[in-house]
Amino acid sequence: MSRVLEAAGSASLPEFDLYIDGRREKPIGGAYFPTDNPYTGEVWAQIARGTSADVDLAVAAARRALPVWNGLKPSERGRLLTKMADLVEANVERLAGAEVRDNGKLFAEMLPQMRLVADWFRYYGGMADKIEGTVIPTGKPDMLTFTRQEPLGVVGLITPWNSPLLLLTHKLPTALAAGNTVVIKPSEFTSSSTLVFVELFEQAGFPPGVVNVVSGYGHEAGAALVAHPDIAKIAMTGSEAGGRKINEAAACDFKHVALELGGKSPNIVFADADFEAAVVGAIAGIFAASGQTCIAGSRLLLQRSIHDRFVERLVEIAGQARIGDPMLATTHVGPVATSPQFDKVLQYIEIAKGEGATCVLGGGAYTGEGAQGGRFVAPTIFTGVNNQMRIAREEVFGPVLSIIPFDTEEEAYEIANDTPYGLAAGVWTSDMGRMIRASERLQAGTVWVNTYRVGGVSTPFGGYKHSGLGREGGIAAIKEWQQTKTVWICGKPDTNHPFVMRH
Ligand code: NAD
């Protein structure tokens, strides 16, 4: 952090400006803040610190663009979104590189993520001219009753630091296909990739003002966006604490809200599972992306009869993970994206030790070969965890696995569901009946059986309980960005009793 502060104000660093009404704009307050590379810890750029005055300009531009965007034929909006997909595909390496420099995730993971970003634009580009209302048979004579799907208006998209472009894309093409215009507030830790990404909208030929970006802090630019009276919906991906504040603020003027929040997902391994596949699934669940994914399988529930053998194999494989430069294809575990997050993960490791959990792998910062000056946490595994410990209840968002033993299937479901969260769950078993029972019993927005961390644009994604509100992805998600209007057309002048509602 000290290096961040030292370099603040350095004139030689590149500056990233706001993007409003199709133009790069300096922030009205004139301030910038530094951003650093998680692998080296070096500050490499300055990001515009947008405030409420900039948000006002961006929302006004998006309002002016609404009739322009909706004046286009739906097929033309779809064509522009599809053009975006082509441009993303043509730029996957550049975009993936921008992500790695911002958030430290593996290039090997960011590259397919950028291809997925293109898939999302193509999917919702194809949907833009297929959004239909319905004609409803009301049984009333001389009456035509139908619904129209209309956009909400100007919507605010607030994103986190862990996969900035993919998580933005879980919202953006759907919102645009539905006819909305947008103001984006990226995470203050990873704003540059979004500010690079918006260039592609210009290249695709989107009308100015349809997509705007105001970078800045959550309590400044973010809060101003949430409070803005002309914003119809706020869709945020981030922490439970941030989501709660946004939900409370948005409730004041009845904004639509969608929240994709945290998780403490159970990954349950039964004794009859394919042992090696389950070991790989457990590792993918927690050590991929250094555990910085909302769907991390951070609670590993092991049936007691295989517990010791499983832990031994897990430690053997995870202990060989290569830690280092996220740009190298040979690296397995990259750095932690932000300085506060690094401190938080290390604190949770100490909390777990203090609670009496047994650390069987890792247990602190990694400073060995390949670490450079980066923020690395060694892959860490705790056994002897029970579900009441903080390490089992609170989201760590780092490469820290808690292992909890269980005896019966019923006990596994009880432990799995005993959490405020409900984003995802994994189950490893060869029993078909148990696969079906587990998919019914687990309280989570996604249940994976004999696999983990799979996703795609065509499947709904979202959380139960404190993991969020709303669903992203799939055909039905388009409705979350629209409002339904019911129209009654009476073909014959209505001469009924005016004082009584017509049934
Ligand atoms: P965060 O809540 O700190 O910040 C997320 C975004 O919200 C940032 O852009 C931030 O500036 C903004 N923000 C914060 N407070 C705000 C406020 N009061 N008003 C308006 N904006 C505000 O989260 P983070 O640390 O950036 O992201 C990590 C979290 O995101 C983890 O909890 C993780 O589980 C969650 N996450 C969820 C999903 C999902 O799909 N469910 C996906 C990825 C990450």
Question: What is the secondary structure topology, with strand pairs?
Answer:
Elements lengths: L1 H6 L7 E2 L1 E3 L2 E3 L6 E5 L6 E6 L3 H20 L2 H17 L1 H12 L3 H21 L15 E9 L2 E5 L5 H6 L2 H6 L3 E5 L6 H6 L1 H6 L6 E3 L4 H10 L3 E7 L2 H12 L4 E5 L5 E4 L5 H12 L12 E5 L3 H12 L20 H16 L3 E4 L18 E4 L6 H4 L6 E7 L2 H9 L6 E5 L3 H10 L4 E4 L18 E2 L12 E9 L13
Parallel strand pairs: 1-5, 7-8, 7-10, 8-9, 10-11, 12-13, 12-17, 13-16, 15-16, 17-18
Antiparallel strand pairs: 2-3, 4-5, 6-20, 11-19, 14-15
Helix pairs in contact: 2-10, 3-5, 4-5, 10-11, 12-13
Concise overview:
It is built from 17 helices and 20 strands.
Any descriptors?
globular; 2 domains; Aldehyde Dehydrogenase, Chain A, domain 1; binds nicotinamide-adenine-dinucleotide; single chain; 17 helices; seven-stranded mixed β-sheet; Aldehyde Dehydrogenase, Chain A, domain 2; alpha/beta; disordered N terminus; 503 residues; six-stranded mixed β-sheet
Write up what this structure looks like.
The protein is α/β, with parallel strands linked by helices and 503 residues long. It has 2 domains: 261 residues, Aldehyde Dehydrogenase, Chain A, domain 1 (3-Layer(aba) Sandwich); 184 residues, Aldehyde Dehydrogenase, Chain A, domain 2 (3-Layer(aba) Sandwich), CATH 3.40.309. 37% of the residues lie in helices and 19% in strands. It contains 17 helices and 20 strands. The strands form 5 sheets. Strands 14-15-16-13-12-17-18 form a 7-stranded mixed β-sheet, with helices on both faces. Strands 9-8-7-10-11-19 form a 6-stranded mixed β-sheet. Strand 12, helix 12 and strand 13 form a beta-alpha-beta unit. Helix 3 runs antiparallel to helix 5, helix 10 packs parallel to helix 11 and helix 12 packs across helix 13. The longest helix has 21 residues. The protein is globular, with a radius of gyration of 24 Å. The termini are far apart. The N terminus is likely disordered. The site of nicotinamide-adenine-dinucleotide (NAD) has 32 residues, from helix 10, strand 10 and helix 11.
